[in-house]
Amino acid sequence: MNYLYPVFNTTSLSSFDSPYLEGFKGKTGEVAFFIDGEANRHYFLGLGDPKHHLEVIQTVRSFIFKQKENLSTGVKIKFLGGQEYLSDIVQGAYLSDYSIGYLKGEQSEFPSIEFEADASDVERGQHFARAIKRIMRWGDAPGNHKTPQKLAEWIKASGEENGFQVEVFDKTACENLGMHALLGVGRGSRENPPVFCVLKYTHPEATKTVGLVGKGVTFDTGGVSLKPGDNMNYMKSDMGGAAAVAGTLEVAARLGLKINLIGAIPITENCIDSYAIKPGDVISSYSGKTIEVINTDAEGRLILADALSYITDKYHTDVLIDLATLTGNAIMALGYKAAALISPNDELAQSLFHAGLKTGEKVWRMPHWDEYKDALKSDIADLKNLAGSPIGGAINAGKFLQEFIREHQAWAHLDIAGTAFMDSEFGSMKSATGFGVRLLVEYLESQGA
């Protein structure tokens, strides 16, 4: 049998009499190992003094993934302390069997995992791992396996399995709703037209309603404003915001959070053909505002504009948060360690910031002053979708979205372009992270959900 002991730098190992543990300090990623007289293998994995929950999750996940051949007969995880992190250890363990290569003919075998822990800790970790693995699979799915219709099917199936409602509006329904910006972006994809999903989770004891909006571009060529060919393959991940919203509703439903959630997910491809919108075109939107399309590769804000307008028109929400892999400028400003946060509401911004510090899905607040809005003035439409200058792009995008929230008093925009798709042990190229679910659930729980 294989035994795994997660060890913090304050954990006592005095009950183990083994020379192989001499000098073992429990530093993050440090490993000690011995075989007992009954041929049982004992692994001690250092977790150090964690700065946040994600550090624990990733350390456990990476160790089991890399040791899967040595642990092929199964592993039992035994806890020696660190109650606060037990569900994170469970989550990391269950995430370790994630596989990017699900389309390969031959699949790797992963070890079975058991825990010596309270059922509630195990269950919580399982709920997070199940949801995050699901949306990571969505993010890593190739564009031809992930049309707007297919992603909508996946979201609807998740709702049926996990206890939240999903309504899917097809192209005709979107036309009837007046989703002109969403439909405009999707014009270049005739075979796979746009769809719009509305997700609902309710709890009888809820006193607050939170709206969540997620960008769902299943593949982004840039449209007529074509992206460079290098790394365009990563544009299959341009639906990380949509994935985060669906994953959050799944976890909220599984945990029975005392909150009402309304999700809005516009889904489309951004492709090229003779029907595609062109730079200089002026399109309408659900709100009635007209938009001059300066660059067709600034498509995410167009579809979010319709979704934000719809949710603020149809529902009362106490808080409204949107997530999107929106701008390369967010990566230039913050790298891959934090998402860009834009919000005029100090309390909401602080709550999200502290939720990020605790979970490890960090956010950093950017300026939100109205001076930035001047860059979006258009001569021929109510506003344009891209400023003329290449600087301040993430902020300008946020100010664009703010024009479609009907002066909502508690709105936040999260640009997750740098955090939704990153390097990991799962492959040689970047892959989906599931960023946003832990952050949002922590925020909801901090508000009494």
Helix and strand layout, with pairings?
Blueprint: E1 2-8, E2 31-35, E3 41-48, H1 53-66, E4 75-78, H2 86-95, E5 113-116, H3 119-140, H4 148-162, E6 165-169, H5 171-177, H6 180-185, E7 195-201, E8 209-214, E9 216-220, H7 240-255, E10 260-270, E11 282-283, E12 291-292, H8 300-314, E13 319-324, H9 328-334, E14 339-342, H10 346-359, E15 363-365, E16 383-384, H11 393-402, E17 411-415, E18 421-422, E19 431-432, H12 437-446
Parallel strand pairs: 1-3, 1-4, 4-5, 8-10, 8-13, 9-10, 12-16, 13-17, 14-15
Antiparallel strand pairs: 2-3, 6-7, 7-10, 11-12, 14-17, 18-19
Helix pairs in contact: 1-2, 2-3, 3-7, 4-7, 7-12, 8-11, 10-12
How would you characterize this protein structure?
This protein is an alpha/beta fold and 449 residues long. It folds into 2 domains: 116 residues, Leucine Aminopeptidase, subunit E, domain 1; 305 residues, 3-Layer(aba) Sandwich (Aminopeptidase), CATH 3.40.630.10. It has 12 helices and 19 strands. Strands 6, 7, 8, 9, 10, 13, 14, 15 and 17 form a 9-stranded mixed sheet that branches. A 5-stranded mixed sheet has the order 2-3-1-4-5, with helices on one face. Strands 11-12-16 form a 3-stranded mixed sheet. The radius of gyration is 23 Å and the shape is elongated. The model has no long low-confidence stretch (mean pLDDT 96). Its main location: cytoplasm. InterPro entries: Leucine_aapep/pepB, Macro_dom-like, Peptidase_M17_C, Peptidase_M17_leu_NH2_pept. One of its GO terms (biological process) is proteolysis. It is found in: Cytoplasm.
